[in-house]
From TrEMBL:
Pfam (any one): WGR
InterPro entries reported for this sequence: WGR_dom_sf, WGR_domain, YehF/YfeS-like_WGR
This protein's name: WGR domain-containing protein
SUPFAM superfamilies: WGR domain-like
Residue stretches of biased makeup (Basic and acidic residues): 80-94, 102-116
Organism placement in taxonomy: Bacteria, Pseudomonadati, Pseudomonadota, Alphaproteobacteria, Rhodobacterales
Length: 116
């Protein structure tokens, strides 16, 4: 768990059977008027994702809202990750490789991976 001074979180949800690779990141940002905002970023791993900012009157309200959001995500299967755009080497849901390294591909081209 992270220390109290930095409540930001980076969560991942990976389920190869459902072709699901998602990230969720959230943190607190102080406002100019003494309040605080909860900054949320989410989307498919590898995409730029979406952003939502929710502003609260006090930092304590924002901290409580952030805690509620994180608890909800963890109940839905998200786990702690190092970076919202990077995939952890640990694969809790599947032993399927996240990157296909079995065949050579030309540099500079993107290829969709199969789940064979």
């Amino acid at each position: 768990m992270q220390d109290e001074s930095d409540p930001s979180v980076h969560l991942l949800r990976i389920d190869a059977g459902r072709n699901m690779r998602r990230f969720y990141a959230a943190g607190l940002q102080p406002t100019l008027f003494g309040g605080a905002s909860v900054m949320r970023y989410w989307g498919r791993i590898g995409s730029s994702g979406r952003i939502m900012i929710e502003t609260f009157e006090s930092p304590e309200e924002a901290r409580l809202a952030l805690g509620k959001l994180v608890r909800g995500k963890r109940k839905r299967g998200y786990f702690e990750g190092k970076d919202p755009c990077a995939v952890s080497e640990e694969r809790p849901d599947s032993e399927a490789p996240l990157i296909d390294t079995t065949e050579e591909r030309p540099a500079g081209r993107l290829h969709r991976l199969s789940n064979d």
